[in-house]
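Long-time lurker, finally posting.

We've been working with Pullulanase 1, chloroplastic isoform X1 (Nicotiana tabacum) and I want a structural starting point before designing mutants. I don't trust myself to interpret raw outputs, so I'm hoping someone here can both generate the C-alpha cells and explain anything notable. Sequence follows.
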Amino acid sequence: MSAALLSYAPLSPISAPSESTRFLLPTHHKRLRLSSLTRYRPGLKLGTSRPLTLRCSSTMHQSSTPSSCSQDSLFYSRAFWVSRSIIAWNVGAGEGECYLYASRNAALCVADGEIQGHDVKIKLEQTNYGLSQQVVEKFPHIRDYTAFEVPATMNCQSLVKCQLAVAIFNSDGRCASATGLQLPGILDELFSYTGPLGAVFDTEAVSLYLWAPTAQVVRALIYKSPSETDPVEIVQLKELKGVWSAKGPRHWEGCYYVYEVSVYHHSTLRIEKCVSNDPYARGLSADGKRTLLVNLVSDDVKPEGWDNLQDEKPDLLSFSDISLYELHVRDFSANDPTVPHEFQGGYLAFTLQDSAGVKHLKRLSSAGITHVHLLPTFQFAGVEDEKHKWKHVDIEKLNSFPPDSEEQQALITAIQNEDGYNWGYNPVIWGVPKGSYASNANGPCRIIEFRKMVQALNRIGLRVVLDVVYNHINASGHFDDFSVLDKIVPGYYLRRNADGGIEHSTCVNNTASEHFMVERLILDDLKCWAVHFKIDGFRFDLMGHIMKRTMVKAKSLLNSLSKDKNGVDGPSIYIYGEGWDFGEVANNGRGINASQFNLFGSGIGSFNDRIRDALLGGSPFGHPLHQGFVTGLYLEPNGHDLGDKANVERMLAVSKDHIQVGMAANLKDFVLTNCDGEEVKGSEVFLHDRKPVGYASSPIETVNYVSAHDNETLFDIISLKTPKDISVEERCRMNHLATSVIALSQGIPFFHSGDEMLRSKSIDRDSYNSGDWFNRLDFSYNSNNWGVGLPPKEKNEWNWPLIKPRLADPSYKPQKSHILAAVENFSNLMQIRYSSPLFRLRTANSIQERVRFHNTGPSWIPGLIVMSIEDGHPGVPGLSQLDPIYSYIVVIINPDPTDVSFANPALRARSLQLHPIQMNSTDDVVKNSTYDASSGCFNVPARTTSVFVEPR
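Top reply, 14 upvotes:
Generated this for you. Predicted structure of Pullulanase 1, chloroplastic isoform X1:
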C-alpha cells in the first residue's frame, strides 16, 4: 500500500488557521508505521508498468460468513486446515453436507450449483467437540469456528500441492457456500523442518535446500554472471518431506541462481511458475535479481583480522551500561565533504579515521555512547543498488529558494523513488546487506564492506545494532520481482485475515511468526547476522507484531552463542524493539505477542513512549501545538487551548508523574508519591486511556527516548510547540533539557542521531523518503538543516500553515555557536551518566532502594523534578557501596523559564556540590546552580538540569 493512501484527508478544507484554532491532522498513528512504506506510490508498482490496486485488510470484506456459492467465492480462503485431521470453517452447525475438493491442475470451478474440475472429492464430518485447545492456542482468532474431520486415510502430503476448496450443500444438493483453504496449520504439523536450508558448502560440493511443501516442481537456474540471459545449467531439485534439494559441483561458488517454482497460487487460482530468489540467500546481484552462491566462512570475503574481532570489541559489563545512538548509513556521510565521493553514503565511510563524521562518533564514544543502531541495512526496495541509475536534484537550485518555499519539496518528491535515499523499512531479503551502500552491488563486495564497517565501529569503541524488520515484507504474489516468500510457499509466510486477504496493519504484507517455518527463518537470520557479521544487538521494528515466543527463542538462541564455538559472545547481544499493540495482533489476537506488557520479565527491551509523550506533549499524532513538560506546558503557554488554568496545571502534574516513572526505568512495581500525594506503583500511574505507565520488570526492559527517526526531530518539535516570541537560545536549552532527562534516567537511553547537534529536517514529520536534502547531517556544525523549505507535501501539508511562518523567521535558526554548545552539552551529560554506576543500576530492587523523587504530592513547585540516588558506605548496614567516588547524587530538572529554589529537610546537611563536569563546562548558566547545606535549599537556573554530587 502506498504511504500516501494511509494519509487520511482532513474533515474540512484547509485554510490558514490561527495558532489557537483546532488544527486538523491526518489520523494515522505511529502504529501504522508509515516509514515502512517506501516502494509504493498510489496506483503504481515501481519497476512495473502495471497499475496496482491496493486493498487494506481493514476494509476488504470483513465479514467471514459464507457467501453464495459462486466462482468468486473461490478467491476467498475462509476455511482453515488447522491440523492433519481438522478443517475449521465459520459455518453454522447442521448446515448440510460438507466436502473437500482438490484439483492438481487448479481446475476447480463453480457451475450449476456444483463444484466441478476436481480430482478428489472427500466428505467431511462435522465434529461435536469443536476445535482443540492446541488449535485454539495456535489460531485464537478462529476459536469459535466449526470443526470438520478429515478422513485418516487421506494422503494429505499430496493434497496440499493442489487447489483446494470446501463446500456446504443444501438439502436439495445444491452448493450453498464454497471457499478456499488456508494451510499453515497442516503445513506446520506435517512439514516442520529443522535441517539445512539455503546453500551449503563442503569440500567438494555445493548443495541447495528449499522448503516448499506445496510446490509441484522446483528447478534451480544457475548463471555465471549477474546479467547473462541464459542459465549455464538448469537443475531439477528432488523433494523429500517438503524439502527440495540438489547437489552441484564446488565451482558453483561465485555463480548466481534463482528458483523456478511451479506451485498453486491462491491469488490467481492457477498453477504459477514463480521465479524467485532463495529466502536463505546470503548474497545477491544488484537489485536482488539473482542469489549469489557465496560462502560466508571463506577467507575471500573476510577483511584482515575479521576472525579476531570479538577480542577487539569494547567491553560491556552489563546491559544497563548500554546507551544507543540511532543512525542511518546514508545520512552519516552522504553530505560530508571530508569523505571521498566514492565512499559517501556507504559502508566504507565508517572506515575512515579522519572524516568529520568519524571524529564525531569518536567523541560520542569517548563520552560514553556504547552502541550505534543502524537503520535497515538488509536488502530493501525503494533504492536502486546501482548508483548510476539514481536521479539527482541541483543543490545550487535548492539553495536558491527561500526557507519556507514549496519548491524544494516539489523537486525532491519528483524523484524520491528514483534517488539514492530511503530509510529501508521495506525488506526484500532479510539476510543480505543492502547493495546500494556498497561500492559494487554485484559479487561479494557488499559483504566485505559491511564487515569492514562493523570492524571499524568496534575499533573506535562502538558496538553495532541492526534494525531488523521481520514484521512485514515488501511484496507478495506471484508476479512482483521483489516477492520472495509468497512465491515459494504461497499463503504461508504472510498473515491473513478471516477471508484469506493479507493483513496490512504494519503497512503491507504482515508476516506470521506464529507459523513454525516463519519463526525458524527469523531465528536463522538473526544467527547469521550475529555469527557471520558479528552484530552486537538487534532492534525489532514493530516487535509487537511478532509473537513473544519467537522473541524469547531469539534471546535464548543469541545467548547460547559462544566465542569458542561461534566466534562471538552471545550473552552480550542485546535485543529490543517497538512493543506497540495494535492491528490483528492486538490483545493477543493471534497468540501472545511481543508487546510492552507481555514482555515483562523477558529481559527484552521496548521503547518507552510514555516518557517521550510527557516530555514533548500530547503524542506525535495529536495536535502539533499540544505542549509538554519541556515545551512550555502551563509554564509558558503557546496559545493553544488545553482548557482552563487548573486543567493545564493538572496536565503538567500528571506528565511529571509519567516522567518520574520513566526515570525509574518505567518499572511496574516502583513505588513513588504521585501528584495527588498517594503512594502508588508505576503500574498504578495511568495514561489517558487508563493503561498503566509502568510495565517493565528490570531496567534493561526499558528504552527511554524522546526522539527517533520517526516523526519530527527533537529541535523541530520544540520549535513547533513553543511560543513564537521566545529566543532560539531558549529553544536550544529546551533541547538540552529533554536530552538530559533521557541521559540521566535509569534504563537504557536512546538518542536519534543529530539531536545532539540540534538537528532539523525542516519540520518534516516522516522523512523516510525525503532525500538527502531534508535528512542532512552536518558534522562541521555549521548548520542544523533548519529552514531548507517546506517539508514534503504528502505527510506535512496539513501542518504547512503552522510550519511556514516558523521557517520564514530567521530568529528560529541556530547559529554555529548554538550547535557547538549542544554538542558539548550532550557530551557532558553522557560523561556524567558514566561517571557513576548509580545512573546505571542493574536491578529493579536497586532502583527501588536507592532512587527517590522529592517535590511530589499536591504542594509541589510546578514542573520541577528532584531525583536523588543514594549509595551505601563500607561497614555501614543497609545499602551496599557501588560507587567509589560519589555517595549521593541529586538531579534537579527545571523546565521553568525562571530560576527556581527548592528546599527539602531530607536533603539538608549533605556535602553536595555541582558535578565537576558541569562546573568545568562552557555553560555559564548551569554554573549558577547552588546548594545550601544548612537549609537543604537548591537554586537551579531556568531551563536547566543540574547534577549535584556528594564526594566520598
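Before you design anything, note these points.
The domain at 71-189 is CATH 2.60.40.1130 (Immunoglobulin-like).
Residues 698 and 845 are 9 Å apart (CA to CA).
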